[in-house]
Amino acid sequence: MADEVSFVEGQAEDAQGIVQLIQKLESETTSIEFDDAISKLSLEQIGENLNLIQQSPLNFLLIAKLGETPIGIVTLIETDEVKHRAELGVGVLKDYWHNGIGTMLVDEALYWAKQFSWLEQVWLAVLDNNQYAIQIYQNLGFQTKTPPTMDGQGRQIIKMELSLT
What we know:
Blueprint: E1 5-9, H1 15-28, H2 43-55, E2 60-66, E3 69-80, E4 85-92, H3 101-116, E5 121-127, H4 131-139, E6 143-144, E7 149-150, E8 156-163
Parallel strand pairs: 4-5
Antiparallel strand pairs: 1-2, 2-3, 3-4, 5-8, 6-8, 7-8
Domain N-acetyltransferase: 5-165
Pfam families: Acetyltransf_1 (PF00583)
EC number: 2.3.1.57
């Protein structure tokens, strides 16, 4: 049924949809940033990277789809191989905010991290004025470990962490 949201790991054939999703997310909000390198990759290269992510015990990508259309994404990207740390990133299209999709994406990523990965810690950065997201992260067990910092755009950023061990 096209009205149901499904959650699937990103595969090579999802490359175009993921690129379009990222472009739309970046146009809808300033609270999410993707690596600029993505825009320099071909769809074939993105597909190859998606296949590599699926095989990795330290990286994860899950897409929320409404029918065949991607409407949300969550990633765990390894940031410290020695300490087995990964950064969590999540984005949901504005039309679907406050429907539990972001929470479900994060919850699924954390389940994967706890059950199937080599990760020991997940961390994230969130704007301090995004109280809705901060509450969700706290409800999922994330804790703030350091005072907020200022980013390059003059915004207050809160770093939160979750230990998986």
